[in-house]
Amino acid sequence: MRIDVVTIFPDYLAPLALSLPGKARDKGLLDLAVHDLRGWTTDRHHTVDDTPYGGGAGMVMKPEPWGRALDEVARGATIVFTTPSGEPFTQALAQELSGHEHLVFACGRYEGIDQRVVEHAATLGTVREISLGDYVLNGGEVAALAITEAVVRLLPGFMGNAESLAEESHVDGLLEYPVYTKPASWEGRDVPDVLLSGDHGRIAAWRRAEAQRRTAERRPDLLAATGVISGLADLDVR
Ligand code: SAM
């Protein structure tokens, strides 16, 4: 997979060299480049913003540098505009994007990017407008980081143990069950007996029930979508 990030704060993306994305680069699964939008400005001050037409507070990112940047790095790509008015980012969307060959992140700042840039991008590749959640960040860099990390860990060959991906929160529509490690007793708190039983069938049933219970408590909206809500009365398998 190839990922290009266009931003006015390239240093913000430094963590991409670390941890998971860094590992994916080392394994040759990911080719990643971060670009400074100001490199596509033509004036002495490297201006990337201007006042909004129609008035109002704040500044808007100018179309010309964005147009030149995308012409150069985004032809044929899936171009992700990070924006609070985009489709919500989910595990399903991460899974979908992990199958794309080339992602380009356009990180907005100020009041956002001139809308004509999005229209122009649609002539170069496939546009996705994606939101990290229902809140407002200062810029799109954190969203690009989060989306990249969620996508890259799904690349085939990235995880040593692919099973750990299959059992995670949101993969089957449920939150993950609680997890424990040694010691079996700590500060007077014991690991549930079933996990020490060695009975794989009972362990799997307990985990499934705990995942459903936790999802019902914390995210009933998710449980309704999985259609398992009717089985909740039978959950006590301890
Ligand atoms: N005025 C914009 C609005 O109300 O929708 C918010 C602009 S925000 C201060 C600046 C930039 O941060 C946005 O252009 C976008 O790239 C990014 N951003 C902010 N919140 C985001 C979110 N929830 N998800 C993804 N990107 C976000």
TrEMBL record:
The keyword Nucleus is assigned to this record: no
Gene Ontology process terms (BP): tRNA N1-guanine methylation
Catalytic activity: guanosine(37) in tRNA + S-adenosyl-L-methionine = N(1)-methylguanosine(37) in tRNA + S-adenosyl-L-homocysteine + H(+)
The protein's name in its UniProt record: tRNA (guanine-N(1)-)-methyltransferase
Family recorded in the similarity comment: Belongs to the RNA methyltransferase TrmD family.
Annotated signal sequence range: none
GO cellular component, one term: cytosol
Residue stretches spanning the membrane: none
Localization (cell): Cytoplasm
First-listed, main subcellular location of the protein, grouped into a coarse class: cytoplasm
GO MF: acyltransferase activity, transferring groups other than amino-acyl groups; tRNA (guanine(37)-N1)-methyltransferase activity
Positions bound to S-adenosyl-L-methionine: G108, L132, G133, D134, Y135, V136, L137
Keyword terms, alphabetized: Cytoplasm, Methyltransferase, S-adenosyl-L-methionine, Transferase, tRNA processing
Keyword Isomerase: no
